[in-house]
Amino acid sequence: MKKAGQRVLLLLLLPLLLLSFAGHKAAAAGTTPGKIVMDSKELALPKGVILENVNGSVMIPIRVVVENLGFEVLWEQSSRKVTVQQDGKSVQLAVGSTTAQADGVNLTLNAAPKQNGGTVLVPIRFVSEQFGLSVGWDNTDKTVYLSGGITETAPVASDPLPSATPAPSETTEAAPGAVQSPSPTTPPQSGTETLEELDGSVIVAPTPPATSPVVKGAVFSENRLIVAAAGGAKATVTRVTGPDRIVVDFAGAAFAPDFSGSFPGVSTGGSPQGKLDVSGYPLVTEIRYALFSTNPPTVRFVIQTTGYQNYQVSTDESTGLVTIDLNVTGSETGAPVNPGFTGRPVIALDAGHGGKQSGAVSLTGKLEKTFNLAVILKAGAILTQEGWADVVYTRTSDITLGLQDRVKIAQAANATLFVSLHANSLDVSYPNRSKVNGSETYYSRSESLPLAEIMQKHLVAGTGFKDNGVRSKSLHVTRETRMPAILLEAGYLTNAGDEAGLYSEQLQNNLAREIVAGIKEYLGL
C-alpha cells in the first residue's frame, strides 16, 4: 500500500513538471527517386525504380518489402500476376487490376499495380493492411517509412519514435488514406486535433471522446515505469533488439489533454512527446514517449536499456496504474532469462506467433498462437519437473515477439538445441484444402537433420496424425540459430480432424510428453 501511495503521489506531482515546447526542423529540398526505410534500415531499390504517387496513392516495389519480411514472391510473366506467400498465407495481385486476393478474399485496391521493368509497384496502403506495417510518407524527399513488422516471418521491427524535439519539413503530405491537415495558418476544425506522424507528415484525426482509452501521465521511479491510464487503456509490452529496448504500446489510446511527463514536449501537430527522467539508473539510457500511430491511435513508450533486461508487468485495475518493473530476474510476463551455467543441457522452447500475430486461424476460429503456447508450456513443465535440463522459453505469455528476438534468446542462453512449435494451414484456393492433414518437421541446416528425424517420429506419436516426414526449408529461427534447431508443424488447422485433435487436452498432453521424449532420445538420455 505504501508503494502504491508513492506512485499515486508521483503522478499527482507530474503536472508541476510540465514544460511545453515546440520543435522545428528545416525543410528538406531537392529531387530524388525516393527511398524506403523499414525499421530504421534503408532498403535497396531496384535500379531505375522511382517511387511514384498515383492519384494520391504512393506506389512501392512489393518484392523489396515482402522479401525483407521473409515472404516468398512468385511472378507469372504470362498473366503478369504476383503471388506472395508464407506458411499458408497467400496474397495475389495482377498488374493493371484494382482487384486483389488475400487468402481467397477479394479486395479492392485504391490504385492498380503497375510494372516498371521487372519490378511491380503496389499501393503502400495495401502493403500496410496485408502485412501489418505502420506506414508514413515524407513528400519532401520521397521517403516511405515502414515499421511494426514484428511478425513470424520477419526480423523484429524497430520503433521509429522521434526525439523530444522533432519537426516536419515545410511541405508535408499525409500518409495515404489519411485526411490531410489544413495549412499551418488554418486552425483545425472543431472536434479534431492535429497529430504529427512519426515520419514528420501531419494528419488530422478525430479528438477521442472522454470515455475513450487515454494515457494521463507517466514517471520513472525506483527502476519502474509507471503509467497512469484510464478508459480501459491496456498495455502490450514487447522486447526489441538492435538496440535493446522494451516497447510499451497502449493500442487504441491517445494522450489525455492534461498528460504529464518528466520532460514533456509538444509536436508541431499538438500531440505530447518527450522523455522521462532516468538519471540514477545506469541500466536505462532513455525512456521516450509519443503518439506512435493515429489510426488506430497508439501511445508508445520505449525503455532503452544498456543490454538484455528482464521485466514484469502489473496493472492496478482500481487506479489504472500500469507498472513495468525492471527489478526482476525471472521470466515473468514472457521475459526469458539465461538459466545460468549448471552443467545441464539448455533446451530453448519456442511457442510460435503470439500477441498481435495470431498465426493461422482454424476452421472454427481458434488461433494457432493459443495451441502453440499451451503445448510448449506443458513440455517445459515436464522438463523442469524431471530436472535434467534447464529450460529457456522465448515467450510464456501472449506477447508479440520477433523472429530475431527468438534467436537471440536461445543464443544468449547458449541453448543446446532449439524446438519451435506451430500448426499449419492452407489458403482457401489450395486444391483439396480441407483434406490435407498430418504432421511434419522442418529444418534448415544439415547439422539439424538428425534432431529433425528424431523429433518427427515423436511428433507423429504425439499427434496420431499422418506422417508427412521431414522437410528442409529456409526458416528464420531454424536458419539463424547456432544450435541444432527444428520447427514442428503439428497438424493442419484447415483440416477438421486435425483441428479437433490439436485443441484437445489429451493430444496436447501427449504431444508435450513426446516432445520431451524426442529431446531425450536426441541427447542420448
Automatic annotation (TrEMBL):
Domain MurNAc-LAA: 407-520
Ranges of biased composition (kind: Low complexity): 162-183
Stretch forming the signal peptide: 1-27
Superkingdom per UniProt: Bacteria
Top EC group: hydrolase
GO MF, one annotated term: N-acetylmuramoyl-L-alanine amidase activity
InterPro entries with a match to the protein in the record: AMIN_dom, Cu_amine_oxidase-like_N, Mao_N_sf, MurNAc-LAA_cat, N-acetylmuramoyl_amidase_3
Disordered: region residues: 155-195
EC number: 3.5.1.28
Keyword vocabulary terms for this entry: Hydrolase, Signal
Protein name: N-acetylmuramoyl-L-alanine amidase
